[in-house]
Design brief:
CATH class of chain A: Alpha Beta
Distance between the termini of chain B: 51 Å
Largest sheet of chain A: 4 strands, parallel
Largest sheet of chain B: 6 strands, parallel
Distance between the termini of chain A: 11 Å
Helix content of chain B: 25-40%
Radius of gyration of chain A: 16 Å
Shape of chain B: globular
CATH topology of chain B: Rossmann fold
Number of helices of chain B: 8
CATH architecture of chain A: 3-Layer(aba) Sandwich
Oligomer: heterodimer
Structural class of chain A: alpha/beta
Strand order of the largest sheet of chain B: 2-1-3-4-8-7
Strand order of the largest sheet of chain A: 4-5-7-6
Mean pLDDT of chain B: 96
Mean pLDDT of chain A: 93
Number of helices of chain A: 9
Low-confidence stretches of chain B: none
Structural class of chain B: alpha/beta
CATH architecture of chain B: 3-Layer(aba) Sandwich
Bound molecules: thiamine diphosphate, magnesium ion
Radius of gyration of chain B: 15 Å
Shape of chain A: globular
CATH topology of chain A: Rossmann fold
Largest interface: A-B, 36 and 36 residues
Low-confidence stretches of chain A: 1-12
């Protein structure tokens, strides 16, 4: 958003930040997640800021999402847990590298912010957003989904549990309805 | 560049790993993995048979998790080209214990020897430097390789990158284990981690 200060205070009343990113953060801390690779998405910005401000966690910006899959395999070999943060288009960038989740049977967890659904403005997001879940499932990843703020905690809790305790590769889709469709123009 | 007097890949890798001590070694898919296997199987070897473009990132994840241990990625020019962005990611993280070695035969040896981009203008050492990996060098002699191998043990001065020019010979495969779950559990065990 590039609105001027006056306009923005008029059109965007200071809304309280959502609390679900904080729920995710505290679950990741409790599971002792140490490496947090990401390609930024607006829906993850609050969580990324929290990770950047936490010395016990390492935020690792990537040039492409598949790097994060390989990174987490290495982290596991070295005894650390991680989580990959990306948006739905990034899932397409990961496909071949997702082989590692089956080959190494390591505790892969990814949190995917969804685009291309629920009031999407940008048609370029729709093709990949429409196939995100199927692509993950075809790659052997279990998919859980959160649509409402009040269910994020239990969905991410369940996903972390099955990923880290049972080495079951898992993705959580954080729906566009939850995050809010991106506003391009008024 | 001149294609004469290039190094033998097996000789390069066995020299680099001769005094590996506690180092963890990751081999990129294809011939680099065979070279590492030929130098001797080891509980701290992570052999890749796929995941092309992922070797450096696996090394980075390991290096960040085990900052006191030397972590060495040995891969091919083709594999490195596919994961070139990971050099930028490593440059940003500056893992002091990570060494990346590219065995550069300027071709995709495993798939029939088709020319790679390094046979043209691509300068991987230049890329590594431009990504913030200050210690990045090209090597063409065994003397240089021999002088370099000691630095692999230095876990406070990385990351470092070396492109070692090797000949294009397709050597007989030395087969390592292909069972990823076994390979990764074995490394974890060697580092003191229990199975789930
Ligand atoms: C994603 C992907 N694309 C292509 C291949 C086929 N492939 C296997 S090995 C290889 C070449 C590796 O070349 P390089 O890394 O230079 O190793 P060399 O054999 O020359 O040492 C290719 C292209 C593959 N395994 N995966
Ligand atoms: Mg090659």
């Amino acid at each position: 958003m590039h609105a001027g200060a006056d306009a923005s205070s008029e059109t965007m009343p200071a809304e309280a930040l959502p609390t679900w990113p904080e729920d995710i953060f505290s679950i990741l801390r409790r599971f002792d997640v140490r490496q947090v690779p990401y390609v930024p998405d607006a829906g993850h910005s609050q969580l990324i800021d929290r990770v950047l401000g936490t010395p016990a966690m390492r935020a690792i910006p990537l040039t492409t999402e598949e790097e994060g899959v390989a990174l987490l395999a290495g982290a596991w070999a070295g005894g650390q847990r991680g989580v990959l943060l990306m948006q739905s288009s990034g899932v397409g960038n990961c496909i071949n590298m997702l082989s590692l989740t089956q080959i190494f049977r390591f505790p892969f967890l990814t949190l995917v912010t969804m685009r291309g659904e629920w009031g999407e403005f940008n048609p370029w997001q729709v093709p990949m957003g429409s196939s995100t879940q199927a692509v993950l499932e075809l790659s052997g990843i279990k998919v859980l989904r959160a649509d409402r703020p009040d269910e994020v905690r239990e969905v991410v809790e369940a996903a972390s549990g099955q990923a880290y305790n049972a080495c079951t590769p898992t993705a959580v889709l954080l729906s566009q309805r939850l995050i809010g469709a991106k506003v391009f123009s008024k | 560049m001149s294609r004469t007097n290039l190094l033998d890949r097996r000789q390069v890798v066995s020299c680099l790993l001769a005094e590996r001590k506690d180092a963890i070694v990751i081999g990129g898919l294809g011939a680099s993995t065979y070279d590492i296997a030929a130098a001797g199987d080891h509980a701290r070897n992570l052999y890749l048979w796929g995941a092309m473009g992922g070797a450096v990132m696996i090394g980075l994840g390991l290096a960040l998790a085990q900052p006191k241990l030397p972590v060495v990625v040995i891969t091919g020019d083709g594999e490195m080209l596919m994961g070139m962005g990971s050099l930028a990611t490593v440059g940003l993280q500056q893992p002091k214990n990570l060494t990346i070695v590219v065995l550069d035969n300027e071709c995709y040896g495993e798939t029939g020897g088709q020319a790679s981009h390094t046979a043209g203008g691509t300068d991987l050492v230049g890329v590594a430097k431009a990504c913030g990996i200050a210690e990045a060098n090209s090597m063409t002699t065994m003397a240089e390789v021999g002088a370099f191998k000691g630095s692999l043990q230095n876990v406070s001065a990385g990351p470092r990158f070396a492109s070692i020019k090797i000949d294009g010979a397709n050597l007989e495969r030395a087969l390592s284990s292909r069972d990823g779950a076994f390979i990764v559990s074995r490394i974890r065990g060697a580092l003191g981690f229990q199975p789930i």
